[in-house]
User: Fold this.
Amino acid sequence: MQLDIMGARVEITESGCGGHSALLLHGWGCSAELMASVQHALEGSMHVAALDFPGHGKNGTALPPPEPWGVPEYMEMTAEVIRRLDLAPCDIVAHSFGGRVAILLAATHPELVRRMVITGGAGIKKPDSGKRTAKQQLYRSLRGAVNLAERTHLFGDLPGRGREALVQRFGSPDYRALSPEMRKTFNRVISLDLTDQLEKIKAPTLLFWGAQDTETPLWMAKVMEEKIPDAGLVVEQGAGHFAYLERSATFLRVVRSFFGVDERPR
Assistant:
């Protein structure tokens, strides 16, 4: 089904029976399809909804937000999904970027969230040491030159081409693949540090992490475990950023137990 919320189109897949509801939130650049195993594991005992965030989705073809969004806009959109589908208070399973949204949602609208499972969740910034690598220093210098050229309007479209060249040279593969508009959204998303929101979370929270996660390193999970009042951490050795898929059987067993749902009949 589709919902129009805050000027954006939201794709939602629903399944399952009555009882408690669960909402599944995917990571950046992914889609609800990567949450299919979780949905299948819960739908025998719960009403499950999985959404595609605006600007994401199957084959990357979903429409972007009407303007560059940050985490607060994605969070309010998600809150409205919960209200319109009458899911509250719901259980949440969130991966990576979905974890950013879930953290802010639980901190801002505690009445909408019963329990949360966050795996490879993003949103915690490493303290800035003030040191810069040679690559970072070069990027900052070149970016400054491009910014100056844009302000002076002396070089036609050269600054625009120069900015794209910087993206292609210094940007991550995910960032390079984004449209110019979604890059603005991406920059807004990653600029927000959610550390001060963690202590506001009232929902019991389970953190499921890969010890070898290089995208959202284990130290982030430990910060979340320390600051969320009712949190526990499960660490999977040898697993990475997609630990919930790499250790699917363990993850699903833990989620079902944490949510208090019966095992699927065989």
